[in-house]
Amino acid sequence: MKHLLASIHDVGPRFEHEVDLLHDRLTGHLGGPRFAMLVVPDHWGEAPLRAGTPFATKLRGWADSGIEMFVHGWFHRDTATHSGVAAFKAKHMTASEGEFLGLDHATALDRMRRGKALVEDITGHAPAGFIAPAWLYSSGAKAALGEAGFALAEDHARVWSPARDNAVLTRGPVITWASRSRPRQLSSLAAAALLRRALAPARIVRVAVHPGDTTVPRLLDSIDTTFVAFRRRVPMRYAQLLA
Fold first, then answer.
1. Beta partners for residue 37, in sequence order
2. How are beta strands 153-154 and 158-161 bridged, if at all?
3. Is the pLDDT of residue 221 over 70?
4. How many angstroms separate the CA atoms of 142 and 137, rounded?
């Protein structure tokens, strides 16, 4: 049996309207809330997630409906100075969003623990795992995942379990889209079209959408086309990878 793992990134009060749109879109394609949400505790230090707010109530309702919740960094903003390979990743793979790419072990662990506690308090459910903003991790951040108590983690190429000696649970690229410039939009559209065919034989396919996707009709069309292409797959929860 072939499966589909779907997720909405950058979930928080800063993008409430966009997340609502994506929630409804994915629910329609998948026949229910059969996807994950990646929650940012305080996007760029400008949109803190607080208990008792309307968005917190909405988030708890989504978790109660069965949507898996992941901790997705803390600020989702990278303020570190990079060199070498990390500098290349910071420049070409994200726009100052790779928060955990330059963090030392202690700082990464502190933010992970605080994020885990906050998301659990807000939703009433233990987070399924941790996924770094832009899927980028420093070596210290990777080492902190297990200490923070996360069962699952993900990057561009794989999903693994920090709680199980970093055992790899599935491999393969994520189908995702970029909205921040026309060249990136076009390249992500081309990549999505290629991956829809290339990943057809794969046992598990991952698809990730972002709030910015809702602002570009051609990206939404590509997202719809992708879910239609994989409509015969069974949507699954990330936690099922641990079974």
1. 8, 69
2. antiparallel
3. yes
4. 6
